[in-house]
Amino acid sequence: MSEAVGEMICEGEFEEFRDPLLKLRGVTPEFAALLKEAGYFTIESIATEVPHFLFQRIGERMGFSLDKAEALIRDARSKLDIRILSARELYEEELRRKTIPTGSKGLDEILGGGIRTQEITEVCGSYACGKTELVYTTAVLAPKALGGDVLILDTEATLSVSRIRQIAKARELDPDEAISPIHLRRVPSSSDLIATLETAHKFIKERNIRYLAIDSFVSPFRREYPGRELLCPRQQKLNYAIGLLIKFARAYDMAVLVTNQVLATPVAQYTTTRPEFLRPPIGGYVMAYGANNRIYLQETDKPNVSIATLIDSSYLPRQSRTIKITERGIEDAG
């Protein structure tokens, strides 16, 4: 082999190593740039996409079409060895999943070990019941538990790094080291949230993000789509956003936690005592079907003490534990 040919092969291999999109059949450097412009930076981002969404975002530039979108996704899936698993293989995969401790052994117990990778965990409740505190506590504990970084998306502009440092210090961790693997972004609108998720593949891959928390997930949709007449478009966008989270959780072996607000229903108190019926989580069935585990935090008459109830799970029974908010974040109450 001549030196010139050898150099060309090495250069081609280096390009593929530097840009994984070039491993896909028919993807040139120019088309790879087009994919990145649309937010597709990794093979996973292509493999988990829906063909008509991919075509919608790329358009007909450079001769792209819906058929080519379907072929590109098939090729990406083949590169990732996506296939049908036997029950034994799936069970072994489930055993390999990791969990993030919540700070409360009782809450970990009803969640089957904590906030689990490849799943979406929803935490809902009224204000001051501990939802954001759970985000802070798990953000501090996640890097050690999962061996990767944390990304927090804040839709309410209430995130406090000072509080995260306080929790780390109370848990005898170095505050500077504790916040080093935590990345934060404020997302003021539902469109910004969706755009951030659509283009997050590169950041997730480069920074090895293993834990994504959104506080609060449904809040921007609730603000921007008021009234029954806007319920349909709101739920469609919400469902699309949840679909993106499911893709992230599975493609990157991530744990995903979303907090959610509740709806006041004064009449319900006369017909039921279950917290999720008294003040149901917002988002309707879209949220109910999207989350693997749903935790409801119900405040008590004691300061900083809440009852955490697993109100729904795809594989765990309904249980409750009492938690409290301390300098260390979330802990067992008594």
Unreliable stretches (pLDDT < 50, length at least 5) are 1-17
Number of strands: 11
Gross morphology = globular
Topology-level CATH name of the largest domain: Rossmann fold
**What's the name of the CATH homologous superfamily of the largest domain?**
P-loop containing nucleotide triphosphate hydrolases
Strand content: 15-25%
Main sheet characteristics: 9 strands, mixed
Q: Give the end-to-end Cα distance, rounded to a whole number of Å.
A: 74 Å
Q: What is the chain-wise order of helices and strands? A: HHHHHHEHEEHEHHEHHEHHEHHEEEE
Count of DSSP H/I helices: 16
Strand order of the largest sheet: 5-4-6-7-3-8-9-10-11
**CATH architecture annotation name of the largest domain:** 3-Layer(aba) Sandwich
Which whole number gives the mean pLDDT? Answer: 89
Tell me the name of the CATH class of the largest domain.
Alpha Beta
Q: Give the helix/strand class.
A: alpha/beta
Name the helicity range: 40-55%
The total number of structural domains is 2
Q: What's the gyration radius in Å?
A: 22 Å
Verbal overview:
By secondary structure, the chain is of the alpha/beta class. The chain has two domains: 3-79, Orthogonal Bundle (DNA polymerase, domain 1), CATH 1.10.150; 90-332, Rossmann fold. The protein has 16 helices and eleven strands. It has a nine-stranded mixed sheet with strand order 5-4-6-7-3-8-9-10-11, with helices on both faces. The chain has a two-stranded antiparallel ribbon with strand order 1-2. Strand 10 (320-326) and strand 11 (329-332) form a beta hairpin. It is globular, with a radius of gyration of 22 Å. It starts with a helix and ends with a strand. The model is unreliable at 1-17 (pLDDT under 50).
